Amino acid sequence: EDKVVQSPLxxxxxxxxxxxxxxxxxxxxxxxxxxxxxxxxxxxxxxMLTSSGIEKKSGRLSSILDKxxxxxxxxxxxxxxxDSAVYLxxxxxxxxxxxxxxxxxxxxxxx
Amino acid sequence: DGGITQSPKYLFRKEGQNxxxxxxxxxxxxAMYWYRQDPGQGLRLIYYSQIVNDFQKGDIAEGYxxxxxxxxxxxxxxxxxxKNPTAFYLCASSIGGRGVVRQFFGPGTRLTVL
Lengths: 111, 114
Description:
- The complex is a heterodimer.
- By secondary structure, chain A is mainly beta.
- Helix content of chain A is 0%, strand content 59%.
- Chain A contains no helices and eleven strands.
- Chain A has strands spanning 3-7, 10-14, 19-26, 30-38, 44-49, 56-58, 61-66, 71-76, 85-93, 99-101, 105-110.
- In chain A, strands 2, 4, 5, 9, 10 and 11 form a six-stranded mixed β-sheet that branches. In chain A, strands 1-3-8-7-6 form a five-stranded antiparallel β-sheet, with no helix packed on it.
- The termini of chain A are far apart.
- Chain B has strands at 4-7, 10-13, 19-25, 31-37, 43-51, 54-57, 64-66, 76-78, 87-94, 104-105, 109-113.
- Chain B is built from no helices and eleven strands.
- Chains A and B meet through strand 4, strand 5 and strand 9 of A and strand 5 and strand 10 of B.
C-alpha cells in the first residue's frame, strides 16, 4: 500500500529559528512530490519536486528530494510567526491521477 | 479573479439529512477533486473527476455522491449513509492529464452534524 509519512507531527520553535520538516514515502511508480502550506483553510502550493538533489528555493523556504532514500525535506530559515501553519506533503504516483497525502506537520512559531 | 469557490463556509446538518456542498471553479481546469480532512490527518480523497460527465471513487466514497454536469461545477452530496460526516471538506482542481497534478484548493466547507 502506498503511503506518505511526515515528521514531526507537530513542532514549536521561536521566531528566528531554522526548522526542517520531513516527508518519507513508500509508493510504486513515483512521479513527483509536492509541498503545500495550510494556514486555516485552503492549502497553498509551495514546491513540486521530481528530480533528486536539485534544491527548490523560494525566499526563506527550500526543499530537496532524495529518490534513493525516498524522502524530502522542507527547510524554513529565520522563521516568522507568519510561517505558523500545517505543512502538507503529497506524492503523485504514475498509476492514476491521485495524490497520496501525508498527515501534515503542524508548525507553531512563538514570538 | 480566477479561483475556486466553495459554499457554504459552515454547514450544520441533522442526522438523517442529505446535504450538498457546492464547488465552482473558473480556472478552466478539466480535473476536480473532493477531499475530507479530519484533525491530525492528511487529506483523504472522496471522489475525483477528470472530465465532464465522468467521475471515479476515491478512498472513502461510501456515503457520498457527486455529479459533473458542467466543467466548472462539482457538487458533493453527503448522504445519511455517511456515518461520521463531521469534517472539513476541501474541493480542488487541476489542469488535468498526466504529469500535471498541481492542485488548487477552495477555502473549504466545515460540516457539523448535530
